[in-house]
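Summary of Year 1 activities. Much of the first year was spent building the evaluation harness for sequence design. The harness presents a backbone, in tokenized form, and records the residue chosen at every position. We chose the following record to illustrate the format because it has been used consistently in internal testing since the harness was completed.
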């Protein structure tokens, strides 16, 4: 596949990592509970930063956080937090690290109460994807009524770094919302 010949969403730019993420992952529906947790944690880690920063550190996150195993993460102690704070492979922000641990704990409680994390998250859109018609940059949204509802309920359940904007970016990333531009070659594919 030749990179220059395909029309992509305007935000992609020319970084090969960003292009690969857009072309292969962004907007593809995900239903796996643990992968959804990982994506939610990574989107929270992105708060205040560019997504490319997280993409460059994503492998470091998978290693540092035990492949986002919620059972292991929920038991992290101060020694593990210190280890994470010294890990250059991730964003070394204590609030974000604590948030990842708190989110793993909240995830386990939610699964115990409701069963499927995937069903819970997809329930905010009635189980069906939202397919937007983005023609120009001005059409992109930062939040939606569904992302506000998701953020409010996740916070009520003990999750953090899950505001409406983070939730909307998460919904885009995991395919709950298709926000590929109409002119993008991925629009019809996903």
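For this record, the design step produced the sequence shown next.
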């Amino acid at each position: 596949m030749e990179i220059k010949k395909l029309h992509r969403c305007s935000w992609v730019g020319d970084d090969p990592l960003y292009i690969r993420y857009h072309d292969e992952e962004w907007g593809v529906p995900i239903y796996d509970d643990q992968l959804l947790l990982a994506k939610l944690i990574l989107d929270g880690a992105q708060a205040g930063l560019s997504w490319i920063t997280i993409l460059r550190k994503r492998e470091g996150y998978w290693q540092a956080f035990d492949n986002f195993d919620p059972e292991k993460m929920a038991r992290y102690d101060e020694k593990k937090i210190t280890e994470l704070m010294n890990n250059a492979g991730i964003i070394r922000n204590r609030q974000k690290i604590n948030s990842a641990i708190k989110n793993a704990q909240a995830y386990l409680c939610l699964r115990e109460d409701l069963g499927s994390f995937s069903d819970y998250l997809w329930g905010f859109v009635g189980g069906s994807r939202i397919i937007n018609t983005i023609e120009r940059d001005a059409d992109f949204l930062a939040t939606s009524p569904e992302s506000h509802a998701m953020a409010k309920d996740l916070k009520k359940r003990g999750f953090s770094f899950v505001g409406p904007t983070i939730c909307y970016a998460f919904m885009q990333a995991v395919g709950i919302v298709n926000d590929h531009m109409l002119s993008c070659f991925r629009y019809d594919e996903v």
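The first strand starts at residue 130 and ends at 131. Quantitative recovery figures across the full test set are reported in Table 2.
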